Amino acid sequence: MSTIIHASGQPAAAGHGHEHEHDHHHDPLTGWRRWVYATNHKDIGTMYLLFSFTMFMVGGVLALLIRAELFQPGLQLMNPHLYNQLVTMHGLIMVFGAIMPAFVGFANWMIPLQIGASDMAFARMNNFSFWLLIPAGALLTFSFFMPGGAPSAGWTLYAPLTLQMGPSMDMGIFALHILGASSIMGAINIIVTILNMRAPGMTLMRMPMFCWSWLVTAYLLIAVMPVLAGAITMTLTDRHFGTTFFNPAGGGDPVMYQHIFWFFGHPEVYIMILPAFGIVSQVVPAFSRKRLFGYASMVYAIAAIGVLSFIVWAHHMFTTGMPVTGQLFFMYTTMLIAVPTAVKIFNWIATMWQGSLSFETPMLFAVGFIFVFTIGGFTGLILALAPIDLLLQDTYYVVAHFHYVLVAGSLFAMFAGFYYWVPKWTGVMYKELHGQIHFWASMITFNVAFFVVHFLGLAGMPRRYADYPMQFADFNAIATIGAFGFGLAQVYFLFTVVLPCMRKRFRPATQRPWNDPDGRGAEGLEWEVPSPAPFHTFEIPPKLDPSATRVLDSLPTAINPNAGRQPG
Questions:
Q1: C-beta of residue 563 within 8 angstroms of C-beta of residue 557
Q2: Residue 522 gets which letter from DSSP?
Q3: Which has the closest alpha carbon to 106: 422, 505, 499?
Q4: Integer Cα distance of 501 and 240 in angstroms
Q5: Which one of 123, 213, 375, 505 has the lowest number of neighbouring Cβ atoms within 10 Å?
Q6: Within a 10 A sphere around the Cβ of 79, how many other Cβ atoms?
Q7: Integer Cα distance of 137 and 130 in angstroms
Q8: Residue 112 in contact with residue 178, Cβ under 8 Å?
Q9: CA atoms of 26 and 334, how far apart (whole Å)
C-alpha cells in the first residue's frame, strides 16, 4: 500500500492514506467551509463545545426566569402554564442540548489525542452527527412560539399530560429523535475509534481514564437511546394514530410509560456523569504530581456503574404503588451502585494524599467537583430509601439532589476539563486570576442557590408549582439570589476566559503548561504534541513499549523531536 507524503513531511499511517489525502485537500478551506464540511475531530469537537455552551446559556436564561418567578410568593411574572413550559424546556435543553453534546465535544477533541489516533474512525459521520444538533436545538428553542406554547409536561414527558399538549409536543418528540440519532452515531464512532485505532502498545488497561469512561458511556448510549425513542414514538402514536399505549380507557397504562422512560432515564444519569469522572481522573493526578491511585479498580468501578445503572430505574417510582418486594429490590440496588461511585471518590482522595499538590483552576474545579458531588451522592442515597422517598418524592429535595449531581457534578467537571486542556486547544494560557474568580464565584453562588433548596424539600414544598405558601419565602429568595449570581459567574467566564482564548489574547502556552520544574504533572499522549495541537496529529502512530510501566516511559522522542523526554 502506498504511503502519501504530506506537507508536514510525514507519511500517513498505512490504511489512512485516502482519508488524509481528502483532509489535506480541505486544509486551504477557510471561513464557513472549514466548519460546514469539517471532518477533523478537533474542529468538530470545537463546534460541539460551542453549540453546547450556547444551549447552556439558553437553558440558563430559562432557569433564571423560573427562579425570578419563585423569588416571592404569588404570581410575579407569568401564569402557571408558562411556568411549566419553562421548567420542561429548561430540563430538556440542559440535558440533551448542553450536557450531552459538551461531553461529546470533549470526546471528539481528546480521545484521538489520548490514544494516538490520527482522527475519529468515521470522519463524515462525525460531521453529520454534529449538524443534526442544529435543527434539533432549533426545534426545542422555537417550540415556545407554537400555538399553545412549548411542551409543559415536565422534562420526563409523562403520560397522560403529553397526550393533552398542543403541536409543540410533536416538535419536542421530533427534536429528541434527532438528538438520539446524533448520540447513537457519536457513540458508535467513539467505540470504533477506541477499540480499533489505539496506537501500537496502547492496551486497553493503559488507556487514559477519560477514554475508559467514554467507552462505557458510549455503550450505555447505544443501549438506552432506542428505549427513549420507543417511549416517545408510542406517545406520538397515542396522540395522532389512535393507539392507547398509555391511555387506561383503551387498556393502556400511564405507569408503563414511566417504566420505559426511566429504563432510559437512569442510565442517562450515568451517561451525564461518567465522562465527568473521566475528566476528574485526568486532572487530579496531574496536579497531585502522582500516578492515579488504583487505576484498575477505577476501570472496574466504571464498568460496574455501567452495568448496575440498568437495574435501578424504578427508584424514581416508589410512589406509583409497586409491590413492597419491588421497592426493596430497587432500594438495595440503588444503594449498591453507590459502592463503585464511592470507590472512585476514595481513589481521587488517595491520589491527592501526600501528593505535591498545586491548586490552579483545573484542580480547584476538580476538588470542588469531589466536594459537591459527594453531597449530591449522599442525598441520592437518602432518596434511595423507599420509606423516606415516599415523603420526599416530587419535592424540592429531589430538585436539590439532581442539581448537585448535574450542575456541581457534570458542569464543574467540564470546567475542570476546559481549563486543563484549553492551552492545548487554543495555544494560549488563560489568566489564572480569571479562572480563580470564576471558580469561587461559581462555587459560592451554586451552594447559596441549591443548598437551601434541600430545606425547602424537607419542609414539603412540591416542585413544578409557580406559587407557594408564605413559609417557604425566605429560602426561595436566597435560592434566587444565588441562581442569578451563578448565572453572572458564567457570563464572566464567557467574556474573560472563553472569548479571549478563542481570539488568542493571552500569552502563548508551552507544550506542557502544567508540569513543575522537575517535569512532573500532566501525563499522556496529548501532551506530546505542540500547543496548539496541529490540524493533523499522529499521522504516524506513536509506538509504545508494551513492557514499560507507563505510557510516557515508552514514547519515542520522534513524536516531537523538540520536546525532549519528560523525567520523573
A1: yes
A2: -
A3: 422
A4: 49
A5: 505
A6: 11
A7: 11
A8: no
A9: 50
Beta carbons of 390 and 443 less than 8 angstroms apart: no
Q: Residue 38: how many CB atoms within 10 A of its CB?
A: 23
DSSP state of 446: H
239 vs 232: CA distance, rounded Å: 10
Give the residue numbers annotated as catalytic, written as ranges.
Answer: 90, 119, 155, 182-183, 266, 268, 270, 281, 315-316, 341, 344, 463
Distance, CA of 321 to CA of 228 (rounded, Å):
23
Residue 255 grid cell:
405507569
* CA–CA separation, 538 and 2 (whole Å): 18
What is the full DSSP assignment across 317-347? Answer: -GGG---HHHHHHHHHHHHHHHHHHHHHHHH
Burial of 455 (0-12, 13-18, 19+ CB in 10 A): middle
**Cα separation, 191 vs 211, whole angstroms:** 10
Which residue(s) pair with 462 in the sheet? 395
Task: Give the 3-state secondary structure of residue 11.
Answer: strand
Secondary element (H or E) of residue 200:
none
DSSP letters for 460-521: TPBSS-S---GGGHHHHHHHHHHHHHHHHHHHHHIIIIIHHHHTT-SPBPPSSTT--TTS-S
Global pTM value: 0.91
Residue 553 DSSP one-character state: G
- Rounded to 5 degrees, φ, ψ at 9 are 90, 0
Q: What are the backbone dihedrals phi and psi of residue 154, each rounded to the nearest 5 degrees, phi first?
A: 85, 155
For residue 395, give the 3-state DSSP assignment: strand
> Rounded distance, CA 316 to CA 325, Å?
15
Return the residue matching grid coordinates 380507557: 249
Grid cell in block for residue 546: 508494551
